Amino acid sequence: MRRILLLHCSPHGRQSRASVLAQELAERLRRRHPEVQLLERDLACEPLPALTGDYAAALVARAPNDDPALTVSEALIQELESSDYLVIATPMHNFSVPAALKLWIDYVLRIGRSFAATDAGKVGLLADRPTFVVVSSGGYYRGEQARQPDFLTAYLRHVLSTIGIHDLEFIHLQGLVRGQQHAEAMLAQAREQLDCNPYLVSSGVLP
């Protein structure tokens, strides 16, 4: 049975514009595949526990997967492994990912479990899957109106490729401080972008 893993990363919770669009996206996938299950994790409103010294020691020692210090990491990796689609709804905080999403990344990127260290570099151990990242920002970081750098996009692309995820599409909602009318225009533009995605179109053969 197919599964969608939807990560909410905004302190505004599921009411954030990125989360609203991400939920619409998940529903479109569910309409294509009525049997699909939706697993939602709110990383901001239900934060993960902080990393501990025991966790760091378990990583260095290459502890077995059932080591108590790895319980949270193992649960999150298993959620990802069992998902056919990954959807991330995140704000841009200080040019990059928010702390809530960074903590999830620190648990999921685990040597010997989600990636292997080789002479050629890190190699992902997880299967690729269609992944959507909906990014919301008060300012502009792309295009002619950009007034700030974007470290989020390249960082997330590299992070996800490290564990084996390469089938990735970013959806950007920029300039949201300009008010409701502008936000609606950004959402409309984003929906048009999604209309062209092969996993969401109304015809064609999907994986």
In which order are the strands of the major sheet placed? Answer: 2-1-3-6-7
The CATH homologous superfamily is named Flavodoxin domain
Residue windows where pLDDT falls under 50 for at least 5 positions:
203-207
Going by helix content, strand content and strand pairing, the class is alpha/beta
Overall outline: globular
Characterize the structure shown:
The chain is an alpha/beta fold. The protein has a single domain, classed as Rossmann fold (3-Layer(aba) Sandwich). The protein contains six helices and seven strands, in the order E-H-E-H-H-E-H-E-E-E-H-E-H. The strands form two sheets. A five-stranded parallel β-sheet has the order 2-1-3-6-7, covered by helices on one side. A two-stranded antiparallel sheet has the order 4-5. It starts with a strand and ends in a 12-residue tail after the last helix. The C terminus is likely disordered.
Q: In terms of topology, how is this protein built?
A:
Layout: E1 3-8, H1 17-32, E2 37-42, H2 53-60, H3 71-81, E3 85-91, H4 99-108, E4 115-118, E5 121-124, E6 131-136, H5 152-162, E7 168-173, H6 180-195
Parallel strand pairs: 1-2, 1-3, 3-6, 6-7
Antiparallel strand pairs: 4-5
